[in-house]
Amino acid sequence: MEDLPPEQVRTLLAVVDEGTFDAAAAALHVTPSAVSQRVKALEQRTGRVLLMRAKPVRPTESGEVLVRFGRQLARLERDARAELGMDTAEGAAGPVRLPIAVNADSLATWFLPALTRAPQEPQVCFELYREDEGHTTALLREGRVMAAVTSSPVPVAGCTVRALGLARYLPVANPAFAARYLAGAPDRFLREAPVITFDRRDDLQDAYVRALAGPGAAASPARHRMPTSEGFRDAVAAGLGWGLVPEAQAEPLLRAGAVVPVGAGRPLDVRLYWQQWKLDSPALARVAGAVAEAAREALLAPDSAPGGAVRGD
Predict the structure, then answer these.
(1) Contact (CB, 8 A) for 35 and 15
(2) 271 in helix, strand or coil?
(3) Distance CA 249, CA 148 (A)
C-alpha cells in the first residue's frame, strides 16, 4: 500500500461523519467534486472500495480501518498541539474530547465515579456512548470511540485490552411475583415466568437460564423491555418480572424486602475489560488509570466467583 495522504484520509472521515459528499464539502470548505476526487484517489491508492454510496454514506470494512486511522491521526495532532502550547493561542481546539463506550449497568453503578478521579489538567470532556457490553467493541472498530468497557477479551485491531474484573448480577424478583410464578424447580420456572430485559439484544437472562438448564434453554418469551438500568431495577421491584440486577443495585432492595432471591440465589458474573486505542495520549492514559482503579474497588477479582455462573465472550 502506498502512503496515505492525510488530506485524503481527513476527507474520507468527513464524508463518514457528515453522511453525504455535499455535507462533507461544506464542512471542509471545498467543492463536492473535490471531495469525490479525494475519496476516489484514496480508493485507487488502497485498491479497495472504502465507502458504500448510500444515504447516509457508510464505510466498508476497509473504510472502517481508514476512518479509525483518521481519528487517531487527528487525536495525535491535537495532543501534539496541546503539548507545544499551540492550543492556547487564537483558534485553540479547546478541551480534550474523549469518546468512550460503556454499558448501562456500569454507567449506573461504578463508572461515573471513575471519571471524576481522572485529572482534569488539561481539561477533558467525555462523550459517552451507552451500549451493551457485548457490542461496545463495534464502536471501537468503527473508530467512533477511543475506549470501551466490554465483555470481549479479544482486542480490536489497533487496540490494547486489560481485564477490569467481574460484574456480579443477582437474580431477584418482587416477593408477590415470586410467590405467584416462581414455585418449583428454578430451571423450569425461570423459563416460563415473565422476565425483564434491557433491549432486544440483551441475552443476560437467557445466559442465566442456560447456566441452570443447559444449552438451548432460554428465558420466557413473555418479556418486558426496559432500556435503562434504573428502569430495569424498578420494573423488577414493581413485580413486572424477574431479572438479573447488578449487585450494587440489588442489595438495598434485598435488605428492604422489596425483592427476594430467585434461581436458588446463584449469581451471574460477567467479565469486563477495558479496550482502548494504541495511542500515546496523556489524557486517555490518565482516564484508563482512573477506570482501572475504580474497577478494582467496585468489581470482583476474576478468581473470586465460587459457585457463580461466569459469562464472558
Answers:
(1) yes
(2) strand
(3) 22
> Tell me: the pLDDT tens digits for 2-55?
588 889 999 998 998 899 999 999 989 999 899 999 999 999 898 889 998 888
Q: Report residue 59: phi and psi, to 5°.
A: -75, 145
CA-nearest of 178, 193, 191 to 237 is: 178
Instruction: DSSP for 67-136, please give it.
Output: HHHHHHHHHHHHHHHHHTTGGGSTT---SEEEEEEE-HHHIIIIIHHHHHHS--SS-EEEEEEE--TTTH
Q: Which residues contact 243 (CB under 8 A, 6 or more apart)?
A: 171, 172, 173, 195, 196, 197, 205, 232, 235, 236
DSSP 3-state assignment of 12? helix
Going by C-beta distance under 8 Å and a sequence separation of 6 or more, which residues neighbour residue 248? 109, 110, 298
3-state secondary structure of 287: helix
Sequence-distant (≥ 6) Cβ neighbours of residue 122 within 8 angstroms: 82, 95, 96, 283
Q: Is 83 exposed, middle or buried, given 0-12, 13-18 or 19+ CB atoms closer than 10 A?
A: exposed
